Amino acid sequence: MDEFSLIGRYFAGLCEADDSIALGIGDDCAQLRVPPGQDLVVSIDTLVEGTHFLPGSDPGRLASRLLGAAVSDLAAMGAEPAWFTLALTLPEADEGWVAGFASQLGRSARDFGIRLVGGDTTRGPLTLTVQVHGWVPAGRGLHRRGAAAGDLVCVTGTLGDSRGGLECQLHPEKGVDAALMERFFAPQPRLDCGRRIAPYASACIDISDGLLADLGHVLEASGVGARIERRQLPLSPALLAFCGEQQARDWALCGGEDFELCFTVPAAHWPKLQQALAGCGVPVTRIGEILPADAGLQLLDAGAPCALPGTGYNHFVSAGGGADKE
Amino acid sequence: MDEFSLIGRYFAGLCEADDSIALGIGDDCAQLRVPPGQDLVVSIDTLVEGTHFLPGSDPGRLASRLLGAAVSDLAAMGAEPAWFTLALTLPEADEGWVAGFASQLGRSARDFGIRLVGGDTTRGPLTLTVQVHGWVPAGRGLHRRGAAAGDLVCVTGTLGDSRGGLECQLHPEKGVDAALMERFFAPQPRLDCGRRIAPYASACIDISDGLLADLGHVLEASGVGARIERRQLPLSPALLAFCGEQQARDWALCGGEDFELCFTVPAAHWPKLQQALAGCGVPVTRIGEILPADAGLQLLDAGAPCALPGTGYNHFVSAGGGADKE
Predict the structure, then answer these.
(1) Of A43, A94, A49, A90, which is closest to residue A69 (Cα–Cα)?
(2) Contact B85/B30 with Cβ under 8 angstroms?
(3) A3 near B CB under 8 A
(4) What is the reaction catalyzed (chains A, B) (predicted)?
(5) Chain A to chain B, count of Cβ pairs less than 8 Å apart?
(6) Structurally, how many domains does chain A consist of?
(7) Cβ separation of B325 and A28 shorter than 8 Å?
(8) Which domain-ending residue is among B74, B103, B137?
(9) Which of A95, A203, B272, B321 is 20 to 30 A removed from B246 (C-alpha atoms)?
(10) A99, A53: one domain
(11) Which among B80, B122, B142 is the top mutation candidate for probing chain A, defined by the most A β-carbons within 10 Å of its own β-carbon?
(12) Any domain includes A222
């Protein structure tokens, strides 16, 4: 057994028993049980050193970011998280690195209620891929398609914080805010919100590329337009203190990797949705409304039309690189 | 939309409709249906440039090798293939490369009866990860555990050919054999064999690290030993012509990536298993038998004990690198 096999075995300890796992780590495949009446939902995500994070990043922070971002796709479907697999490519079999990574991966997995069931450990440039699996009631699930003219556009939490956390790393001389850094490295997938809004929302997406870009995906999939009010974007006190209101609003529109949910809801469902969200602990803010397709995507500032800022979110470090989920 | 998003969209054309796919490429998750009474089986595999294949390798060959190797894990479980996801990290958005890769990926997917349902395309050093999904009757499925003393040890097809194909690339001056190269680049997962043997076999694994290493995994998982007869190893005429009998037998024992099945079967099931395999078109060879654990792994040569060759299979290019499936 070579050194990579030994490293691979490190993760076997993270595989906890569960009724849904007939066979976990250690065979050619994991064997798993989707409950009757549920559809399986799956999503795969990759982080690459130099593209999505700076060389030398702390392995624990990478683990929480990797899994948080991936599980966020389950939240956007209103899904119950179940299992994940990990494909880890490492330049060397560094047990210290793996220990830090696996330790935080285990903590994040427990926080999100998701279990490691398999993986592959290989040698090469640092690349981390995770596939997450969950389930939704058969034939249900929140999709990008489904928004209709007149629906309200809403977001969970606050926007732009992760972009602030990135700025703290790129320009530490301008100041470092721990809360913003935490938003960058430890995204909190809005699983509870997703499940609560699923019965009422008409469409949903998680904000990974930036609000305008991701709302654009909903508009395209649904064949509609939208109007967004810049003054209604939810901003955290930390971000406002860090960069001021104008910059914060731009980052809220275009900063990526907030991993909040952007969803649409028919106006008639709004009261029930608010009831459903009571006590969930995450604010939900109305930021605009869905329009017919020919309206396109319009941005208002205190009711007056204003220009859209550049919507292309380029991932960290390598401008023009980035990632796309097919 | 950046260039990588455009490349990502290239794969959307590979997503064919199917009753089991409620939602394919183009949302936060794919939404999928496991038939009632079936367990889901999943496996994730990575190929890295410079570790698993030479820089500059033909993209079509990489596609067939990537998917063939991954689907082989489904064959080893006796599973029905269903869906796969692809995480592709590319140094640049090279449409020509992607066209060649996607075209062969589509052909291989159709050959294996598996459908692309999602992916992630990122910028970075060339790394290819695929997760395959399939199903087996609930509570069934072929596992590594389950072999018992007295069981026969069998393999499908011929062994060592892929190692011969690797040699053709490393030392082309010694001669290049097209059939061996094909075994290296276009592994044929033994899906049909796996399903036919599943009701009778006691344990199974696919041969990715070499017969001795992979049989070792079965012995460890089952808590048994085994005796293998070197003269009974099935060898192809192409391999015998390429390197002679002694070398061929060593490569059959230790060469990796043949992606044949190694399985064990109670002697009482052997006649029924042979009937079940009739007409499958792939030879199955008895090469030894399972012993109690304290016997360890014994190698015979025409009935006489002989030393085990080094069993560590090091992947291509980077000695000591390689891959391990957890």
Answers:
(1) A43
(2) yes
(3) yes
(4) thiamine phosphate + ATP = thiamine diphosphate + ADP
(5) 285
(6) 2
(7) yes
(8) B137
(9) B321
(10) yes
(11) B122
(12) yes
Instruction: Tell me the one-letter amino acid at B166.
Output: L
Q: Please answer whether residues A134 and A72 qualify as being in contact, where contact means their C-beta atoms are separated by less than 8 angstroms.
A: no
Closest chain A C-alpha to B275 CA, distance in angstroms: 26
Specify whether A204 is located in the same domain as A264.
Answer: yes
Cβ distance of B122 and A9 shorter than 8 Å: no
Residue B243 lies in a domain: yes
- Residue B321 per-residue DSSP state: -
Number of helices (H) and strands (E) in chain A: give both, helices first. 10, 14
Check whether residue A112 and residue A158 sit in a common domain: no
| Residue from A27, A41, A72 to probe the interface with B (highest B Cβ count within 10 Å) | A27
Q: What is the pLDDT along chain A (326 residues), one digit of tens a residue?
A: 466 666 767 787 777 778 899 998 888 999 999 999 999 999 999 999 999 988 999 999 999 999 999 999 999 999 999 999 999 999 998 889 999 999 999 999 999 999 999 999 999 999 999 999 999 999 898 999 999 999 999 999 999 999 999 999 889 998 899 999 999 999 999 999 999 999 999 999 999 999 999 999 999 999 999 999 999 999 999 999 999 999 999 999 999 899 999 999 999 999 999 999 998 999 999 999 999 999 999 999 999 999 888 654 444 433 333 344 54
Could you list the residue range(s) of the whole structural domain that residue B272 is in? Answer: 152-305
Scan for tokens 């210290």, then name that residue. Answer: A96
Gap between the Cα atoms of B326 and B319, Å rounded: 20
CB contact under 8 A, B122 and A12: no
**What 3-state class would DSSP assign to B108?**
helix
Picking from B113, B137, B161, the residue at the C-terminal end of a domain is B137
Residue B318 lies in a domain: no
3-state secondary structure of B165: helix
**Chain B residues in contact with A125 (beta carbon < 8 A):** 48, 124-125, 127
